[in-house]
Amino acid sequence: MSQVIKVGMADLNICKSPDIITTIGLGSCIGLTFYDPVTKVGGMVHYMLPDSTQMRNKSNVAKFADTGIEELLKKVIAAGASKSRLVAKMAGGARMFEMSGLSDVGNIGARNAEAAKKKLQELGIRLLASDTGLNYGRTVELHCETGEFYIKAVGKPIKII
Fold it and tell me: What is the pTM of this model?
């Protein structure tokens, strides 16, 4: 019997087969997963902002791409994943609010997605698939038995990447 592990906003957790890890309500936030296909250990971070270095209050590492992705990496390795086998998948990074002009607030989703790519490159982890951008929210699930990443959005067919 598999369990569903929920990850909240600015939160992260890990899971092992046969469990499923999920997060809801990804707008401009990113849901990024790591998965080791051999040990079937996975994990997910739901972060809100691209860069902790711009903030005074950094107490919640899962809130930021740079610190959240590093923390997730530590946790999946501690749970038995091998860094050399890890693959990443991500979704979210939508442009949820139309802003006039070139506002950074309106484009936080694209900056969040970019921050993940940069961090993964730095860590040497391959981004296998992503579903980011556009203007709608997403709910995602990582199935640790198969490594399949389910993306659900209102009024759209389920996407599996």
Answer: 0.94
The residue type of 103 is: S
Task: Decide if 10 contacts 47 (C-beta within 8 A).
Answer: yes
CB burial of 103-118 (b: ≥16 within 10 Å; e: otherwise) equals: eeebbbbbbbbebbee
Distance CA 153, CA 161 (A): 14
Identify the active-site residue in 20, 29, 115, 125.
29
Mean pLDDT of the chain: 94
102 falls in which pLDDT band (50, 70, 90)?
low
Q: What is the pLDDT of residue 106?
A: 55
29 as an active site residue: the answer is: yes
Helix (H, G, I), strand (E, B) or coil at 108: helix
